[in-house]
Amino acid sequence: xxxxxxxxxxxxxxxxxxxxxxxxxxxxxxxxxxxxxxxxxxxxxxxxxxxxxxxxxxxxxxxxxxxxxxxxxxxxxxxxxxxxxxxxxxxxxxxxxxxxx
Length: 101
Ligand SMILES: [Zn+2]
Prior knowledge:
CATH topology: Hypothetical Cytosolic Protein, Chain: A
Bound molecules: zinc ion
Shape: globular
Radius of gyration: 13 Å
Mean pLDDT: 87
CATH superfamily: YlxR-like
Number of helices: 3
Number of domains: 1
Structural class: alpha+beta
Helix content: 25-40%
Order of helices and strands: EEEEEHHH
CATH architecture: 2-Layer Sandwich
């Protein structure tokens, strides 16, 4: 066992844990200023722990770390909406439902 995991490491914007991307969920900030979970959207990504997605999203929303991660202001209400949205998702679900809108 080597302590250094191969491949890229990412930092959770919620709790600051450094993990392999497989243990994290990616999110992006759209041009419209919306936070969207998923690997496909282009743009600067941020990462949240998959195992504690709701907790880390809530923490990032409260501390304003989303804006730091994206280097753009993130609306507080949007951050709160996103945190509420992910808290309703199953942490084990690899396949996330599409946004309802
Ligand atoms: Zn985390």
